[in-house]
């Protein structure tokens, strides 16, 4: 035995199914009923109106009849001008309770109709002088029936509705048959069919490999074994092992979860079925489960294969909550079908389910148990080295100038995901093309970074007083970034309005930070309040320009008190809801606050104490270094935008000293 699986036996040819016996009697019955209903209840607009003989004589006397055709006592003819019978006055009188009875029972009169064609009956006491009377008034007496309209129009009007109804039924039946099942959930209109996009690794245009993935080496290494199993499953099954049925990719938006799943399929050389979880759910109950069945059916037919479900939290949320439409909602049925399908294969078929989510905490526990999603791979935001590697991947087809420093760009973009870095390269290339350059320069990247972070430039006409105040505001941030120990180095200062900001001070950390000391947080608050402090020191007044600074400072100070235990008055107590580590949003308490009003007042007092102390420290430092502040303002008013070396040269200050951690003896 060499480990090669034996060839599958060729299945016997399928016996062709006998077509069902066709019966057309129901078709004829439907057409006949339709024709009777339409002709009797809904006559055509030009259908003949039956008038009394007296009305016929009156219209002949008015020269309003052009031709007649007689057969026995029946007369058919055509008016010159359309005639309405019965007249509305006759109908009105017939409906009146006091209407007298005449030879015609007016209570039985039909509703008025207007037509140029008419029919009537000759009375028993037929007038022999009628022929002369007709000739005298110019009436043509025809020996053949008078044509009242197109025969095809009559057939279409009589049988058209039934033909349309039958045609719609036949089309509906064929669509249902193509969908692979009966009923709405089985494929009618194709809504039960999976909408998964298939990518074949054999197609070079769609193939993605690990060479296209960078900056997430830890997650990539976790999936190497998956690729190896899909390439050589006998290597693992010979000892009784099975591959994981499912792998859950967890990470922030834009970190490359979908790209990583495509790379796994590309490396293994197997088909890749991609579908968003939101595409499963429809308003009609049962469609989501039908699409799940169809998706797994397609994967089994193409095995080995990979199924990728993006944003699985759309259908994988924990069951048992209150939902509209009752407990057995469409979302729950879809989730249960996924659980059933993942239990339906042993792992030897070569089908692996990859899923991505930003909110793993809300997923159903049955979905996360071993045997379904066996592994969880966290795709973190890239560090500095990872960002540089990602930039190198995205600049492969972009001509770069000699001054471009990807390492410096990676250092200037902390917190950027792979998608953010791809957008940065694209914006820089577009900006260079707009400037008619032959290659993308380092300045193009910096300008693109400012545009992404702050928005495009705004052509505002500011007065000299406003420009000076804005310059002092931004200089206050920058000078404190050079004075406060532990503050992030100041990278760029500008008073060019961008987005909603009238100016910007861009600070970047020298290294990626994963743990924040209390001194660093206070240094950040002092730097944020430097703009307001500079305005108070120089002008003695306040403006609305510090709104965003105050918001950020309050957020950090409240976190110090309620989340990180940095207040002696409060202590190490969790008083804030947990935040989603991948979306940066609060999870909420889900009810009332878990602390008293006295504690809430104490929290507010501690937050105010921290912010007030940092504000006073900012004003003290700016008063002591007023000369450096004025010098930086003068340089800003002259050039509008200053880089790091220009800031140090204008102020004459060295970079801020870095904090040194000291071990505490116990």
TrEMBL record:
Molecular function in Gene Ontology: ATP binding; ATP hydrolysis activity; ATP-dependent peptidase activity; metalloendopeptidase activity; zinc ion binding
A GO cellular component entry from the record: plasma membrane
Domain AAA+ ATPase per the UniProt entry, residue ranges: 243-383
Residues that bind ATP: 251-258
Active-site annotation: 474
UniProt-annotated location(s): Cell membrane; Membrane
UniProt xrefs under HAMAP family: FtsH
UniProt protein name: ATP-dependent zinc metalloprotease FtsH
Species: Ramlibacter albus
Gene behind the chain: hflB
């Amino acid at each position: 035995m060499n480990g090669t699986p034996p060839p599958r036996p060729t299945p016997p040819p399928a016996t062709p199914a006998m077509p069902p016996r066709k019966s057309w009697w129901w078709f004829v019955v439907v057409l006949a009923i339709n024709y009777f209903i339409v002709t009797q209840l809904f006559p055509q607009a030009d259908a003949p109106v039956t008038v009394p003989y007296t009305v016929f004589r009156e219209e002949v006397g008015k020269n309003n009849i052009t031709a007649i055709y007689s057969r026995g006592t029946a007369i058919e003819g055509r008016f010159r001008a359309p005639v309405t019978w019965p007249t509305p006055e006759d109908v009105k009188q017939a409906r009146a309770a006091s209407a007298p009875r005449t030879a015609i029972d007016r209570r039985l009169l039909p509703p008025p109709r207007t037509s140029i064609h008419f029919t009537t009956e000759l009375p028993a006491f037929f007038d022999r002088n009628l022929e002369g009377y007709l000739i005298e008034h110019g009436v043509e007496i025809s020996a053949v029936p008078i044509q009242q309209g197109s025969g095809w129009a009559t057939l279409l009007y009589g049988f058209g509705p039934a033909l349309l109804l039958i045609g719609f039924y036949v089309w509906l039946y064929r669509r249902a048959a193509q969908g692979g099942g009966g009923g709405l959930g089985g494929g009618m209109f194709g809504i039960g069919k999976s909408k998964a996009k298939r990518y074949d690794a054999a197609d070079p245009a769609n193939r993605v490999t690990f060479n296209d993935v960078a900056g997430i080496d830890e997650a990539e290494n976790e999936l190497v074994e998956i690729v190896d199993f899909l390439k050589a499953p006998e290597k693992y099954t010979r000892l009784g092992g099975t591959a994981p049925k499912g792998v859950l990719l967890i990470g922030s938006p834009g970190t490359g979860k979908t790209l990583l799943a495509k790379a796994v399929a590309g490396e293994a050389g197997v088909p890749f079925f991609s579908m968003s979880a939101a595409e499963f759910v429809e308003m009609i109950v049962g469609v989501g489960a039908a699409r799940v069945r169809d998706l797994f059916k397609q994967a089994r037919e193409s095995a080995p294969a990979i199924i990728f479900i993006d944003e699985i939290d759309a259908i994988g949320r924990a069951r048992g909550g209150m939902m509209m439409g009752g407990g057995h909602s469409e979302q729950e049925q879809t989730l249960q079908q996924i659980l059933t399908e993942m239990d339906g294969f042993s792992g030897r078929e070569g089908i692996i389910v990859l899923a991505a989510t930003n909110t793993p905490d809300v997923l159903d526990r049955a979905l996360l148990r071993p045997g379904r999603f066996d592994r969880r791979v966290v795709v973190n935001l890239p560090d500095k080295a990872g960002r540089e590697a990602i930039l190198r991947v995205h600049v492969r087809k972009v001509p770069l100038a000699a001054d471009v420093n990807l390492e410096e760009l990676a250092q200037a973009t902390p917190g950027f995901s792979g998608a953010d870095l791809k957008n940065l390269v694209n914006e820089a290339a577009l900006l260079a093309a707009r400037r008619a350059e032959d290659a993308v320069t380092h300045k193009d990247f910096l300008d693109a970074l400012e545009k992404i972070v702050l928005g495009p430039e705004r052509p505002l006409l500011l007065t000299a007083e406003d420009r000076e105040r804005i310059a002092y505001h931004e200089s206050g941030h920058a000078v404190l970034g050079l004075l406060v120990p532990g503050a992030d180095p100041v990278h760029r200062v500008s008073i060019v309005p961008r987005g909603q900001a009238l100016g910007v001070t861009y600070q970047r950390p020298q290294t990626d930070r994963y743990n924040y000391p209390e001194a660093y947080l206070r240094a950040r608050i002092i730097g944020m309040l430097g703009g307001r402090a500079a305005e108070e020191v120089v002008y003695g007044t306040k403006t609305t320009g510090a709104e965003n600074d105050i918001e950020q400072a309050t957020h950090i100070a409240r976190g110090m008190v309620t989340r990180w235990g940095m207040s002696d008055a409060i202590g190490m107590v969790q008083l804030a809801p947990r935040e989603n580590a991948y979306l940066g949003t609060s999870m909420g308490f889900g009810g009332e606050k878990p602390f008293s009003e006295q504690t809430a007042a104490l929290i507010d007092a501690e937050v105010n104490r921290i912010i007030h102390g940092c504000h006073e420290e900012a004003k003290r430092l700016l008063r002591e270094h007023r000369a450096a502040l004025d010098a930086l303002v003068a340089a800003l008013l002259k050039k509008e935008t200053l880089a790091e070396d220009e800031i140090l040269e204008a102020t004459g200050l060295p970079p801020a000293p870095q904090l040194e951690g000291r071990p505490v003896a116990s």
